[in-house]
Design brief:
14% strand; six-stranded parallel beta sheet; 347 residues; Rossmann fold; 11 helices; binds NADP nicotinamide-adenine-dinucleotide phosphate; two-stranded parallel sheet; alpha/beta
Amino acid sequence: MQIFVFEISWQCDKLFQVLYPPHDDLDHFEMNLQTAKIFVAGHRGMVGQAIVRGLRQLGAQQLLVRERGELDLLRQTEVERFFELERPEVVLFAAARVGGIYANDTYPADFIYENLQMAANAIHAAFRFGTQRFLFLGSTCIYPRNAPQPMSEECLLSGPLEPTNEAYALAKIAGLKLCQSYRRQHGVLFHSAMPTNLYGPGDNYHPENSHVLPALLRRFHEARLGGAKQVAIWGSGTPRREFLHVDDLAAGVLHLVELADPPDWVNVGTGVDLSIAELAKLVARTVGYEGEIVYDRTKPDGTPVKRTDISKITATGWWPRISLEEGLRATYIDFLKDRAGKKLREV
Ligand SMILES: NC(=O)c1ccc[n+]([C@@H]2O[C@H](COP(=O)([O-])OP(=O)(O)OC[C@H]3O[C@@H](n4cnc5c(N)ncnc54)[C@H](OP(=O)(O)O)[C@@H]3O)[C@@H](O)[C@H]2O)c1
């Protein structure tokens, strides 16, 4: 295990040098993240942890975080009190109620209420108490179910949403529109990033609530340990999906928040997809599972292809750096470390 720990910290150092090259050209940017007072909402989540890692790498000196027990973002009075007292200059909003298809489909009321409420509370309080930059995190699931592929930012609100995550998507669209409206009416730099499917350290490995990639990683790992001859995967294996390492996303978020005139909302992805069957083989190879992979075609497939158009963000100078193979290896090492330390996230 010591070798793993050494290997992951070495790999992370190497990744960070690539993701956050030292920049001495801060004059080009509106916001200096090294000196600004920055509130990362949802810092214990997968995205929030990655943003905090990125900010530390950049040398941010005034980082504000709060556990949910100290600041429940669902409570407007608490949120207003916090902003009035702390007056963060920058807010990176990675707090949300998040889950896979099963959780979204089973708890739509929780998903719409909590995500709407948190976004409205934080965006309005940030505006009232002088926050200069607010970056809201949405998701590419805000785009219509039958959006032309690759999905560009322009397809927002051009057709019906995927019914299984409609409640979540509507709340995220409202968050994006809140930022856009406050920017238009009040001139504040509130804007949004729409990440594709993410994976990486700190992911949720709950057997029912997790997303496809962490779910596969856990199932193949357990199948290898238990000597299972077969692993069954939901659906036909043909749907195509895209995956971005969360440290690449965090670098994208910090890049966007330094731009003087960022887009109101922008996709953050790789622009490259693969089939679920290809993903399953890659995960099986990464964890060393050698049994058979079978497909349960009685289960739904969902949208046939989901891939993002990343031309808008790449035109501003960001692009993904971590390959899926490399990212998966590092994620598996992290999974093993957390599992051995009984710290695996299962919520
Ligand atoms: N994961 C993905 O594949 C993915 C893909 C696209 C977009 N995104 C977006 O990225 C953002 C973060 O996602 P994530 O994967 O990092 O989610 P996550 O791991 O579940 O983290 C969410 C964080 O929000 C916090 N939170 C939830 N409700 C709260 C409340 N009432 N008060 C205070 N904090 C609260 C949680 O706190 P606790 O630690 O206390 O639970 C947690 O730290 C979301 O907006 C999501 O839509 C994620």
